[in-house]
Structures are given as C-alpha cells and as structure tokens.
Amino acid sequence: MLNRSDYWQCAYVVPKGSFDNKKTAGIAAFREELAQLLQMEPDRAEELETWEQVKLLSVQVNRLETWWRSGLLCIGDAAHAMSPVGGVGVNLAVQDAVAAANLLADPLRRSVLADRHLQAVQRRRMWPTRATQRLQILIQDRVLLSALRKRSNVRAPLALRLISSIPVLRDIPGRIVGIGLRPEHANTVVVRSEATSPTRWERHLHTE
Ligand SMILES: Cc1cc2nc3c(=O)[nH]c(=O)nc-3n(C[C@H](O)[C@H](O)[C@H](O)COP(=O)(O)OP(=O)(O)OC[C@H]3O[C@@H](n4cnc5c(N)ncnc54)[C@H](O)[C@@H]3O)c2cc1C
User: Fold this and answer.
1) Residue 82 maps to a domain
2) What is the rounded CA–CA span in Å between residue 14 and residue 16?
3) Is position 86 within any domain?
4) Does residue 200 form part of some domain?
5) Rounded distance, CA 100 to CA 113, Å?
6) 153 and 170 housed in the same domain
7) Least packed by Cβ within 10 Å: which of 26, 39, 128, 188?
8) Who lines ligand 1 at CB under 6 A?
9) Closest Cα to residue 53, out of 3, 84, 13, 8?
C-alpha cells in the first residue's frame, strides 16, 4: 500500500489468469477479501464501487534475442520487460541508457556509428539483465507464488530469514536493488564550443 496523501494506492497480487474469476464473483466479494487484508477500518474497502477503479497490470518477464538493427537500438523494457519484483525495472532502464550513451556518444559525434557499436550495448547489458530477471523469477516462484497459494499465514523462506537477521548479509539485497549487478557511470564528455550560449536549463539554474 502506498500513501498518496489523499488516497491509498494498493497492489493486490493475484495468480496470472485468475482476474476474470474475481470479476465474476463480483465487486462485493472483492471488497470483502480486501477488507480482511486492509490495515485500517474494514469499511474503507467500501470506497471501491466499480471495477473501473481496479486496473489489471499483467506482469511479463522476457527479453529480445537481439536488441538492435541497423539504425535502431532497444533498451529498457523495449529490450527486456521486467517484473515489479524488487522494483528494479527503472534502474535497469536507466543503466541501459547510461551504457548506451557511453558506448555510442563518440561514434555518433564522429558520424561513424556502425552495427558493432549497437551490438556492444547489448553485450554489456545482457548479463545484468538476465541475472536480474532470474532473481526476480526465483523470488516470484519461491516466495510470492507460495504466499498466494497458502490460505494461512506464510513464513519467509530460511534464506530470506537468514539474510534479514545477519547485518552483513542484510546489505546485499539493498546493493543489488539500489546499485544493480553491473553499475553504470556516465563517462561521456560534454563538448561545447566557447561560443555556444548557455542552454535553457543552465539559464534556469542561474536564475534559481
Ligand atoms: C505492475 C508493475 C509495477 C512495477 N513497479 C516497479 C517499481 O516499483 N520500480 C521499478 O523500478 N520498476 C517497476 N516496474 C518495472 C518498470 O515499470 C519498467 O521496467 C520501467 O518502466 C521500464 O522503463 P522504460 O523507460 O524502458 O519503459 P516505459 O517506462 O514503459 O517507457 C516507455 C514510454 O514510451 C511511451 N511510448 C510507447 N509507445 C510510444 C510511441 N509509439 N511513441 C511515443 N512514445 C511511446 C510510453 O507511453 C512510455 O511512456 C513495474 C512494472 C509493472 C508491470
């Protein structure tokens, strides 16, 4: 649940393909299920009046075999759709963009961009993508699916309990989520002639 100050944004995870069954059971049955889970007055679920207020977001985890063609490069979700597990999809998309800038800025500036440069972006970003997706699928299958299948309270797997109880281990998931398996640092050089006037953004910064 995310507090959006004047409303709560709630994610309600259901097994793939089961949303139609929920709809058939009706909004009242859905409200009842929700009321049991809400950490607030159960009547808050009454806010949900129609299915119009419920959006189904289907999760996909996949990737293109080839991220490029002459004159075209796919990065981020266009190259590899990420699951919401871990909240890392945006990080990977930005890291792809930084890697692409580092590898393509110079050949673009010199007008010598060739397929091998695009290929180099995929080569650099493929393994962190594949490894992160594997981790997401592992967590999805081992933790989320078993939690969804059980009706009673679920216990976190042993590995997860160990990680959260040992301080040195506790930092590892934080690093993987926050920094990623292959961090990227922009190393492009800003090239601007002395005569160039400041950009609109620079003028804005100056007046601020
Ligand atoms: C339910 C769900 C929850 C998620 N939660 C998280 C989270 O908490 N944290 C996290 O890091 N990741 C999360 N993700 C993953 C994350 O949303 C994606 O990995 C990330 O947004 C990918 O960024 P992107 O820029 O590659 O693509 P997108 O964010 O999809 O951006 C693509 C943009 O292109 C635009 N576009 C499409 N077609 C055209 C066109 N023809 N012309 C012009 N524009 C076009 C789209 O409107 C969109 O704005 C979640 C994913 C799902 C499905």
Assistant:
1) yes
2) 6
3) yes
4) no
5) 12
6) yes
7) 39
8) 57, 59, 76-78, 82, 84, 87-91, 93
9) 8
199, 200, 205, 208 alpha-carbon torsion, rounded to 10°: 150
- Tally of domains within the chain: 2
In a domain, 77, yes or no: yes
**Alpha carbon distance 109, 94 (integer Å):** 21
Residues recorded for the chain:
208
On whether both 68 and 171 belong to a single domain, the answer is yes
132 with 153, same domain? yes
pTM of the model: 0.80
Residues 81 and 122 occupy one common structural domain: yes
Instruction: Indicate the range of 59-63, 140-144, 199-203 predicted with least confidence.
Output: 199-203
Assess whether 103 and 126 both reside in one domain: yes
11-20, 69-78, 172-181: which is most confident: 69-78
Query: Ligand 1 centre and the CA of 10: distance in Å?
Result: 19
Ligand 1 pocket: which of 64, 77, 133 to mutate (most atoms within 8 A of CB)? 77
Residues 139-173 pLDDT 10s: 888 888 877 777 677 778 888 888 888 988 888 88
Q: Ligand 1 centre and the CA of 68: distance in Å?
A: 19
Could you tell me the distance, in angstroms and rounded to a whole number, from the CA of residue 138 to the centre of ligand 1?
Answer: 22
CA torsion 104→109→111→117, rounded to 10°? -10
* Domain span including residue 170: 62-178
Comparing C-alpha atoms, which of 178, 176, 62, 63 is closest to residue 122?
Answer: 63
